[in-house]
Amino acid sequence: MKALGPIPPGYEHDAEGRLLIGGHDVETLVEHAGGTPLFVYDSERIALQARRFRAAFPDVALHYAVKANPYAPLLEAMAELVDGFDVASTGELGKIAHLGLPISFAGPGKRDQELETAIRAGITINLESEGEAERALAICQRDGLTARLAVRVNPPFGLKGSGQKMGGLPSQFGIDHDRAAALVRRIVEAGADWRGLHIFAGSQALQADALIKLQRETVALAASIAKEAGHAPPHVNLGGGFGIPYFAKDEPLDVEAVGEALAKSLAERPKILASTEFAIELGRWLVGEAGVYLTRIVDRKESRGKSFLVTDGGLQHQLAASGNFGQLLRRNYPVAIANRFDAEPEEEATVTGCLCTPLDLLADEAMLPRAEVGDLVAIFCAGAYGLSASPQEFLSQPRAREILV
Ligand SMILES: Cc1ncc(COP(=O)(O)O)c(C=O)c1O
Q: In terms of C-beta distances under 8 Å and separation of at least 24 residues, what long-range contacts does 100-106 make, across chains too?
């Protein structure tokens, strides 16, 4: 038996035992959406997270990292909850440009055409290298434009315990911290509108201590770069990295503790940052637990003493749950039989998708209520890096549906 991840708190069932999402039972949601596989996103859960952030970080702007979930209705709902969007491509920019919030654009390998689009749209470009800076400045000179440029810094430290370490290493992300001040001076002297610094060091951290330390170091680094450059940054994006529990024994992040410590760091910040506005950019923590992936069992079979529940979904929609999205060790996500959400676990079963690869596992040797053909399987924590981070074209299976409730 292999443990399942923890189901996010607050998911209930109706009198017939059917999982409720946003107050709607799963069968009705599936019928309404036209079938499975289906991603359901609960807007109230997202709003709750945003409110929780606001309470914990009253003096810090909240940005949404579109890469976590770019579903259009979700982005529209998000526009009411956050102060800005962070995009990683002009494709993402196209999805949120009409929503009227400040936008920043980070990510390596921005093509000249993307830089030009971003400059003309008046959004902030988080520069990933000196070469990118020169290409942006050349576009401005050629076309008589002024770019809004921020310097993304590759810090000398990382985020401890982070599922995705993006600092303290040689990296394609950001400019090494000891060259950042020189680049700030270069872009200011070239006449660009310098927007400040972006320091993102990692993702999926569950330990408050690690984030507290990281944010303290990040504020200090921003101040030291600003002093060396001789310019006060209008904005400092402190990155994010807030994680959610996916696996057995994962404990939720104590966001309030992080907020309290950051307020203290900011209250004591060096003078050069006195007028700086701070932002945190989050994806997963805002939307991850609000999403549930629903897939229907199409076959039940026994093989050499093991029970298999074969569904109409799979890793082509929910790669992360299969363990193939950067995990070193495959572990089970939180999974349940959604139309028997009130039933006790009674058998060990392996839930698979319908792809012709043994990698296509949604839950391995998990204790579940007995399930039959036609039952619905729910994979929780599917709101971030779900559909858009999965190889939907693989094996030309039907596309997944999405719905925001
Ligand atoms: C620059 C940047 N910002 C924000 C994010 C979002 O991270 P998360 O969804 O873990 O909050 C990422 C994720 O890799 C990132 O690279």
A: 104/63, 104/150, 104/195, 104/198, 104/237, 104/281, 106/152, 106/198, 106/200
- Probe residue for ligand 1, chosen from 46, 63, 67 as the CB with the greatest number of ligand atoms within 8 Å: 67
At the top level of CATH, which class does the domain 102-282 belong to? alpha beta
Provide the percentage of residues in the chain whose pLDDT is more than 70.
99
Which ligand 1 atom is nearest residue 239's CA? 3
Q: Give the nearest ligand 1 atom to 203 CA.
A: 10
pLDDT in tens, 236-254: 999 999 999 999 999 999 9
Ligand 1 centroid, distance to 229 Cα (angstroms)? 27
pLDDT for 136 equals 98
> Between 3.90.79.10, 3.30.565.10, 2.40.128.110, 2.40.37.10, what CATH number should domain 20-41+288-404 receive?
2.40.37.10
pLDDT digits (tens, 9 = 90+) for 136-154: 999 999 999 999 999 999 9
Q: How far is the CA of 383 from the centre of ligand 1 (A)?
A: 14
The number of C-alpha atoms within 13 Å of 51 and in the hemisphere containing its C-beta is: 6
Q: How far is the CA of 310 from the centre of ligand 1 (A)?
A: 33
